[in-house]
Design brief:
The protein has 2 domains: 35-277, Zn-dependent exopeptidases (Aminopeptidase, 3-Layer(aba) Sandwich); 313-414, Alpha-Beta Plaits. The protein has 15 helices and 11 strands. The protein has helices at residues 4-13, 20-33, 70-88, 106-115, 148-158, 167-170, 179-186, 193-209, 224-227, 244-251, 253-277, 286-292, 296-299, 371-383, 402-414; strands spanning 49-54, 93-96, 120-127, 137-142, 215-221, 233-240, 326-335, 352-357, 360-368, 390-395, 398-400. It has a 6-stranded mixed beta sheet with strand order 2-1-3-6-4-5, with helices on both faces.
Length: 415
């Protein structure tokens, strides 16, 4: 069914005052919107399934070095990455989009992830450049390209659709060499962008600090393999096959082991943080459990309209963000939707506060000016049964990391 927004856009791009260039953008954007929608993937508190996607394959060799092909290098690294995950994280199911030298369409790769309710999608690639001097690793997320170099990387990877027989039907006439097409593609925003950026940064940190690769940083661009995925998704560029020295490293067994273990460590760190941040020791209602279950968001019926009853007047010590100072709180629960601070489940929790983070409502107790005070309060909450309670830090109402808090503390001491 075509939405009102889609009908509006169809009328808009036909308007005579709209310039020819933006008419092209709207044409492609509308085509993208009319494609089959993504399937809602699992949105629970655990990461149970990861898709490892070796780029290219079969009749599509990808980037070419003097002595190697992208499709072969990325397959070796992908299989090693999956093996490390299987060995060290037995609770995670690993699914490959391909495990041998075969051609898999870009749209099919995303479908594999969505159909399996995957929690993370990692696409692995190698880069190429006209200059043999260019080298280094970079990791991409779906978004708008900020420079010509990022656009060229997207074009290089999206050219894989030229090997597909029904590309026009599958991608709405998307031209992988059209700048207008990428402007339109960038308008398709993912609700998992922040999580994707977090995972991408962890990969880059591992590449640079553990493997010693040149850091080309986290980038954004329009990749067809990413835009249909309904979960945190990244595209990793291991390095440049067109640089002789880097090609030798990418092709070597040692290099592939280092790169695969780096991706594994980044994934493990992301998984640990995600599950810590989204743990919910507070008992959920049956309705809440249904929402968080795999596919649950598609099956939950809208509640019947009800007359809102006034909430009982209960004395709640609600902490509010204080300006220009650090606040240490203890997070003890998360929910898929907002819960009143007067809920009976919180009756024994002092100094309540809630905030929205990565699409999940999170609840904290306490409001301290030092880390030690918060850690002591964390111990008390854990004794009350909240075994997964942990300290979170805020500055001017925004959640920050411990490293960022240390920097702010140092700056305050120097004032």
């Amino acid at each position: 069914m075509i939405s009102k927004l889609q009908i509006y856009l169809v009328k808009a791009f036909k308007h005579p005052l709209l310039c020819q260039r933006w008419q092209g953008v709207f044409v492609v954007f509308i085509a993208l919107m009319l494609l089959p929608g993504v399937t809602v993937a699992q949105k629970g508190s655990k990461i149970r399934t990861v898709i490892i996607d070796p780029g290219h394959g079969g009749k599509d060799p990808g980037a070419l070095g003097k002595r190697s092909k992208e499709k072969d290098v990325v397959l070796d690294v992908a299989l090693k990455t999956g093996q490390y995950i299987k060995q060290n994280l037995p609770d995670v199911k690993v699914i490959y989009t391909r495990s041998k030298d075969e051609f898999i369409e870009l749209h099919r790769r995303a479908s594999i992830a969505n159909e399996n309710n995957a929690d993370v999608f990692i696409s692995i690639h190698c880069n190429a450049s006209k200059s043999t001097d260019v080298y280094g690793a970079e990791t991409f997320v779906m978004g708008e390209h900020k420079n010509q170099a990022n656009l060229e990387v997207a074009k290089l990877e999206n050219n894989a659709i030229l090997f597909e027989e029904n590309a026009d039907d599958e991608y709405g006439g998307f031209d992988p060499n059209s700048t207008a097409a990428y402007i339109a593609l960038s308008l398709v925003q993912s609700e998992y962008k922040q999580q994707s950026l977090s995972l991408a940064q962890k990969v880059q940190t591992q590449f640079t600090e553990r493997v010693g690769r040149k850091d080309r940083s986290v980038q954004q661009a329009g990749f067809l393999v990413l835009y249909r995925t309904a979960m945190p998704s990244i595209l990793v560029e291991l390095g440049f096959l067109t640089n002789p020295k880097e090609e030798a490293f990418l092709k070597s067994e040692e290099g592939q082991v280092y790169l695969a273990s780096a991706i594994y460590r980044a994934f493990k760190e992301f998984k640990t943080e995600f599950e810590r941040d989204n743990s919910s020791p507070v008992k959920l209602t049956p309705e809440e459990e249904e929402i968080l279950a795999p596919g649950g968001r598609q099956n939950v019926k809208a509640p019947e309209p009800q007359v809102k009853k006034p909430e009982p007047k209960v004395a709640v010590r609600k902490a509010t963000p204080k300006k220009n100072m650090l606040e240490y709180k203890v997070q003890f629960a998360t929910f898929p939707h907002e819960i009143s601070l007067t809920d009976k489940r919180f009756k024994d929790i002092p100094v309540l506060w809630s905030y929205l983070h990565n699409g999940i409502y999170k609840y904290t107790s306490g409001n301290f000016s030092t880390l030690n005070e918060a850690v002591n309060h964390q111990s008390l909450l854990r004794k009350q049964g909240y075994a997964d309670a942990f300290v979170v830090i805020f500055s001017e109402g925004k959640r920050i990391t411990l490293d960022e808090a240390k920097i702010i503390e140092k700056q305050q001491l120097n004032k």
